[in-house]
């Protein structure tokens, strides 16, 4: 509970900093665009690469394989689920909702919660769980926003994106156990560690352009219920039928119960796809995740 409260407070303070910087005109529209591009093309790839190099390659092989295959299944389920549940929404909202269903904030929020509840084993298993999500969010997820009618052009955009290249290199390094060269490793880590602060401040800047009287949105409420309650409930019911350890089952459910990832807003802003709506999704689902994650944690004990 203390870990979760601390993380939530950190998130909202960083959002408030970005909001204030935009409101008092320290950062203008062009500066916001430049920071957004910096996050997408440099900070996020470094963060992804660092995360893969920190993933352990030892421990219980059966638990690793189990959580890996379940995570792949969850990602496939979320892709289909988002398409079906939000198919009647306007195109801009549909893209945000679909991406937000595929990509949660399991990396930033999930890792420390996994470690707090399940110890070092939980942290390592969580890092394995996140491998399919990181790949999916920068392949299928990116295609949601950047897609065109030309499938070949869409594929080219996706496979050449810095975040996809970082995923490929990260997997190679994790599997082979090879470290990044000294110096490069430190630089990648230093830049990647800026991810949370910069991403949340970008969300605050987008939030500064939203009329707060329009912040309440029933579609966002519906999305939040799906993201925080229904999806993890489905994961729980399916996992209960499988011969899984209590740790693997609990982690799968908890990590499936995370709010919308910050990249929902960042990519919506980049590709001009209703970023105010995407920001409301991130802020509202993150706020409501405070009680829901606590309830899921109690239920799974």
From TrEMBL:
The answer to whether keyword Cell membrane applies is yes
Q: Which UniProt keywords apply?
A: Cell membrane, Membrane, Transmembrane, Transmembrane helix, Transport
Q: Which residues cross the membrane?
A: 6-26, 38-57, 63-86, 163-184, 190-212, 224-242, 248-269, 281-299
Q: Its GO CC terms?
A: plasma membrane
| Compartment(s) where it occurs, according to its Swiss-Prot or TrEMBL record | Cell membrane
Membrane topology per record: Multi-pass membrane protein
Say which domain of life the source belongs to: Bacteria
Offer one Pfam family short name for this entry. Mem_trans
- Could you provide one GO biological process annotation from this protein's UniProt record? transmembrane transport
Where does this chain mainly localize? membrane
> What does the sequence similarity comment in the record state about its family?
Belongs to the auxin efflux carrier (TC 2.A.69) family.
- The protein's name: Predicted permeases
């Amino acid at each position: 509970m203390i870990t979760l409260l601390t993380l939530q407070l950190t998130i909202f303070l960083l959002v408030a900093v970005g909001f204030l910087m935009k409101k008092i005109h320290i950062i203008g529209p062009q500066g916001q665009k430049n920071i957004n591009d910096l996050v997408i093309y440099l900070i996020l790839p470094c963060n992804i690469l660092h995360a893969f190099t920190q993933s352990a390659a030892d421990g219980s092989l059966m638990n690793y394989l189990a959580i890996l295959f379940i995570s792949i299944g969850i990602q496939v389920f979320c892709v289909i689920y988002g398409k079906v549940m939000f198919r009647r929404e306007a195109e801009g909202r549909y893209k945000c909702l679909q991406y937000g269903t595929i990509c949660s904030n399991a990396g930033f929020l999930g890792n420390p919660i996994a470690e707090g509840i399940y110890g070092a084993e939980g942290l390592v298993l969580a890092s394995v769980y996140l491998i399919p999500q990181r790949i999916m969010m920068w392949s299928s997820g990116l295609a949601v926003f950047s897609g065109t009618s030309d499938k070949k052009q869409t594929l080219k955009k996706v496979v050449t994106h810095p975040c996809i290249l970082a995923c490929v290199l990260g997997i190679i390094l994790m599997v082979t156990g090879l470290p990044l060269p000294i110096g490069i490793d430190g630089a990648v880590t230093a830049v990647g560690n800026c991810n949370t602060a910069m991403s949340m401040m970008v969300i605050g800047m987008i939030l500064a352009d939203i009329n707060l009287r329009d912040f309440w949105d029933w579609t966002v409420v519906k999305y939040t219920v799906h993201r925080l309650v229904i999806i993890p409930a489905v994961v729980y019911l399916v996992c209960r039928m499988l011969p899984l350890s209590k740790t693997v089952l609990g982690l799968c459910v908890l990590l499936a119960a995370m709010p919308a990832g910050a990249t929902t807003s960042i990519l919506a802003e980049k590709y001009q796809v209703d970023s105010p709506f995407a920001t409301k999704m991130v802020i509202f689902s993150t706020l409501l995740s405070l009680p829901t994650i606590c309830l899921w944690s109690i239920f799974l004990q």
